[in-house]
Amino acid sequence: MKLSTRSRYGVRILVELARQADGGLVKVGKISNNQKITIKYLEQLIRPLKKAGLVQSFRGPKGGHQLAKKPEEIMLGQVVRILEEKSDLLDCILKPETCPFSEKCQARLAWKKASDALYEKLNSISIADLIQDDAAAPCP
Question: What is the rounded CA–CA span in Å between residue 13 and residue 47?
């Protein structure tokens, strides 16, 4: 599975918010500047993160964004599932009806195991894990 920019940038947004947590609300312009993500794209990514309860947004001149949960409670697997349209290796893993061979397909079971292993690993890594070394440069 190749992750789209949605997941990669979404994680970068959450890392930025976690790093700025002590400073209160973070403006979109600051996130955009620090992470080199256009404001338009950033706003598209924040919407599903807000809807999922990972980010809170406040309007107005003193408004901005902040994490709605502690960084250690936000797991990478959760972020990928929120931001990727297709979050499993194959459509037939979650929707067996998409393939006429799903019921008896041994390969499907292998793909499901691989997908489960991927998410097991992603679900063991939190945003807090990513910000442990604050001296780290932003990811490309």
Answer: 12
Say what the pTM is: 0.85
Angle at 28 between CA 27 and CA 33, to 5 degrees: 105
Q: What's the rounded Cα separation, in Å, for the pair 46 and 57? A: 9
Please check whether residue 114 lies inside any domain of the structure.
yes
| Domain hosting residue 91, numbered range | 5-130
Estimate to the nearest angstrom the gap between the alpha carbon of 98 and the chain centroid: 26
Instruction: Pinpoint the alpha helices (H) of the chain.
Output: 5-19, 28-35, 39-51, 76-83, 91-94, 106-122, 127-130
Q: What is the dihedral of CA 41, 139, 36, 9, to 10 degrees?
A: 10
Q: For residue 12, is it within any domain?
A: yes
Q: Is residue 139 part of a domain?
A: no
Query: What is the tens place of the pLDDT at every residue in 1-35?
Result: 678 899 999 999 999 999 987 878 999 999 999 99
